[in-house]
Design a protein that fits this description.
The two termini are 26 Å apart. A hairpin with a 4-residue loop joins strand 14 and strand 15. This protein is α+β, with helices and mostly antiparallel strands.
């Protein structure tokens, strides 16, 4: 690989992000027929409140990133049966404005996912829809599909029901501020401070989420701490990388998302319909995970064992919290990526190894993922007593395409992230860094610096290195245009 030590030529990250999306097969502009369909939409779309339920008076709220406007999911909870909690998760009815086979649907099917690069976002659906008309925006009436389930104190889930309803988001909240408040590290957000009932609602949701989480951990769910770095751009220059911090608000939404998606899968299975499921298969690189654990003083079973791996991860997070993100990254890489598969009506359940759940679909983000929009249509057909909207052969084709496009979206985001990182590191060629090996394949060996959290290729000194190894590297070259960061792990004096 040929890299330039430092490039002084101007480099536009926004243009690079669009180019990366094109390289990996994404359309960034609406075709004319889809644009015409978008222009023809009525100025407003009030929810249908006739035969469907009207739940607009419920204290619904959303929690997402501060900047997010494509809101797919709302939550509300209340006490039932003593100590149990009824949770309702409302999902935006994107299908109401994007019917199957329409030009907008064809556009969404091609891209299959929203591409987030940290510099620019390329939505699966145009912003007029994804951030407005089909977004569950604050103080707006919207159509939704509601997934209802009851969480017992031991974390078991029952009482599942799925139906259509009209909803209204009463409070658009953000992960960081809600998380800081829930953990006692910050004041309540303004909307929470002004509404004691909302504060009680969020605490109830947090408690239910904790019950769900504990149950999944007992079953072998894997607890990770990953570092997602977003470039900070000041006056057109990359000045820093901002790492997303974990917190109780993110945990809350994750648990409700998992429970809602497993409840959707169970609802579809009960009604003898086929569906697209999301799985992480049993890891083929389990021996390397065993080796990593042994090096840290833990003996894992020779055969893949989710609960044993989960217990190991919990113990390591407690023993060495400052190194847990690096261990998490290594294990995630060794587990391999998830994929979409079709579970035929009446077929055996599929296991998601990382989540420790059976029959896990994707249905909670129809604005952002096409597989979720397909699931929404399957569920709506069941509710309406209509025939399945897709054949098994069609679902198989869609599942394969969605898997490929989500892989491509990660590649595009990774390329832009590397370009931003190369810009940030260009003045620091020759500097030594601590790093952890994140990948070993036929293309080479890759490592991530501990600070800043930047990944590069180890061009020398990589022999006998494997995922999870701690190494000392020297930055030898950067090439922002190609997203190249070269590292040398040769012994240094």
């Amino acid at each position: 690989m040929q890299s330039n030590p430092v490039s002084t030529a101007p480099f536009d990250l926004a243009t690079a992000a669009r180019r990366a999306a094109h390289i990996y097969g994404f359309l960034t502009d609406l075709p004319s027929d889809a644009a015409s369909q978008l222009a023809a939409l009525a100025p407003s779309q009030p929810p249908a409140v006739g035969p469907t339920r009207d739940l607009r008076s419920e204290p619904w709220s959303s929690i997402d990133d501060q900047s997010s406007r494509d809101l797919d999911q709302l939550e509300v909870a209340d006490h039932v049966d003593g100590e149990a909690t009824r949770v309702r998760v409302a999902i935006a009815d994107v299908d109401a404005l994007v019917p199957r086979g329409s030009p907008l649907d064809t556009f969404a099917a091609q891209n299959a996912t929203t591409v987030y690069t940290g510099v620019a976002t390329f939505p699966m659906l145009p912003e007029l829809l994804s951030t407005d008309r089909t977004s569950l925006s604050q103080d707006s009436d919207r159509q939704a599909v509601v997934i209802e389930f009851v969480v017992a104190p031991d974390g078991t889930v029952g009482g599942t029901n799925v139906y259509e309803a009209a909803v209204r988001n009463r409070a658009k909240l953000a992960y960081d501020s809600v998380g800081a408040w829930l953990s006692g590290h910050g004041p309540p957000p303004s909307l929470v401070n002004a509404n004691p009932a909302l504060a009680d609602q969020l605490r109830l949701q947090r408690d239910a989420a904790q019950h769900l989480r504990q149950r999944r951990i007992q079953r072998g769910a894997l607890e990770f701490q990953t570092i997602q770095a977003t470039p900070v751009i000041t006056d057109g220059r990359v000045t820093d990388l901002h790492a997303t911090a974990p917190g109780p608000a993110r945990d809350l939404i994750e648990e409700f998302m998992v429970a809602a998606n497993t409840s959707l899968a169970a609802f579809i299975a009960r009604n003898q319909r086929s569906a697209i499921h999301r799985v992480v298969r049993t890891p083929t690189r389990w021996p390397r995970i065993v080796e990593l654990a042994y090096g840290l003083g833990t003996t894992l079973p020779a055969a893949p064992d989710g609960p044993a791996l989960a217990a190991f991860l919990v113990a390591r997070q407690a023993a060495a919290p400052d190194r847990f993100a690096d261990l998490s990254l290594a294990v995630i890489k060794l587990l391999g990526p998830g994929e979409y598969v079709v579970e035929a009506a009446g077929g055996p359940p599929t296991l998601h190894f990382g989540l420790a759940v059976d029959d896990y679909t994707h249905g909670t983000a129809p604005n952002r993922r096409y597989a979720d929009l397909v699931t929404l249509r399957i569920v709506k057909a069941i509710i309406a007593g209509a025939p399945p909207p897709y054949s098994d052969a069609e679902l198989t084709t869609i599942a394969a395409h969605c898997t490929a496009q989500e892989d491509n979206a990660r590649r595009a985001a990774r390329l832009v992230s590397k370009q931003a990182a190369a810009l940030l590191l260009a003045p620091h060629v020759g500097t030594l860094y601590d790093a952890v090996v994140t990948g070993v394949n036929e293309q080479g060996t890759y490592a991530r610096l501990l600070a800043p959290p930047v990944e590069g290729r180890v061009t020398a000194g990589a022999a006998h290195r494997d995922v999870g190894d701690r190494i000392r590297v020297r930055l030898t070259a950067t090439n922002p245009a190609r997203g190249f960061i070269d590292l040398d792990a040769s012994p240094t004096s």
